[in-house]
Amino acid sequence: MMERRVRGGLTLGTLVLTLLSGCATSGQPSVAANSPSGSSAASAAPSGPALAHLAGQLVFDHVANHLVSIWTDDDTGGDRLFPQITDEQEKASWSFDGTALTFDQLTGAGARILRSDLGAAPAPITTGCVAPECLEDGFSALSPDGTKLAFRRLLGSTEPTGSRIVIADASGANPILMPSLPWSEGEYKSPRWSPDGAFIVVALEAHTDAGGDISGSTLFVIDMADGSLRQLTPDGLSAAAPDWSESGVIVFGTDPGQADADTKDLYVIAPDGSGMRNVTDGSAVAGSATTPRWIPGTDQIVFSHITSETTADIWVINADGTDAAQVTATGGLDLYPAVSPT
């Protein structure tokens, strides 16, 4: 079983959109170059599989030796690692217009959210998370119009006591705190906006006790008009890591902290809870399919394909379950992919 959260202390990459120059060096993982959406072209990575090409810029978490950094590909076809800073970073999320990324920066004191606009150095946008009231901020998502930021806040001092969803201005100012959830009951994760900004879908990971042992995960929809919470997925699916398409369909997988080599699938569902169906069925993509994101402007889904406790690659699949194809072959754990609008 994979660890729920990864921490470490080595120097890792920062999130600056000016990529390192030069070609990939020996020993770097293989990442496919981009090509127009729908292209069937693929190039063979050295000593690895033929990898699919994506439109837009792909970013994803790369976990090696229990340390997290954000990797990317660009249209030159070379592998790129964002320049380094003295903290880990993870869970990058593109703005709806593709001009900015927000991401979690993990420090010894917890985690905060940073933003990097095109051509600019990253800057913190949440600074109000201070013990003993708050442990960390993370799982960020900018609203469709770019004016609001949704994220998950862990409450507590040295150990979590609860979690809540926070809605703030895009700068992090004027936070609106949604009702908190006691840690003994569960933890909020992965808020994602509806295309019109009127709703947020969020995963609620249920706990069995104050120690945070996981008993399952369920999706809920928050109505931004009144803050009400409505259950979306049935109990028992371990539904997590949702994402809302431009047409209003929600895709979800399983929490990577719960996923292992046993088969776990991707699903799509309508916002009213109807029409839930499998995207993967355990045979087209052997292993665990998790952390899916829609590729903007397409009916394709990019996701993490976990085959062991130490190996996960990024894959892409059509929403109807056809044409599954591998995108990365790093030899490590690649999670939380996100593709920019083109």
Please provide a written account of the structure:
The protein has 342 residues and is mainly beta. Helix content is 0%, strand content 48%. The chain has strands spanning 12-13, 30-31, 42-44, 50-52, 58-64, 67-73, 79-81, 84-85, 88-94, 100-107, 110-117, 123-124, 134-142, 148-156, 160-169, 176-177, 181-182, 186-193, 199-207, 214-223, 229-231, 239-244, 250-254, 267-269, 277-278, 288-294, 300-306, 312-318, 325-326, 328-329, 333-339. It starts with 11 loop residues before the first strand and ends with a strand. The model is unreliable at 1-48 and 74-81 (pLDDT under 50).
Largest sheet: 5 strands, antiparallel
Number of helices: 0
Low-confidence stretches: 1-48, 74-81
Rg (CA only): 18 Å
Coarse shape: globular
Q: Which CATH top level class of the domain at 105-327 fits?
A: Mainly Beta
Mean pLDDT across residues: 77
Question: How many strands?
Answer: 31
Write the layout of secondary structure elements.
Layout: E1 12-13, E2 30-31, E3 42-44, E4 50-52, E5 58-64, E6 67-73, E7 79-81, E8 84-85, E9 88-94, E10 100-107, E11 110-117, E12 123-124, E13 134-142, E14 148-156, E15 160-169, E16 176-177, E17 181-182, E18 186-193, E19 199-207, E20 214-223, E21 229-231, E22 239-244, E23 250-254, E24 267-269, E25 277-278, E26 288-294, E27 300-306, E28 312-318, E29 325-326, E30 328-329, E31 333-339
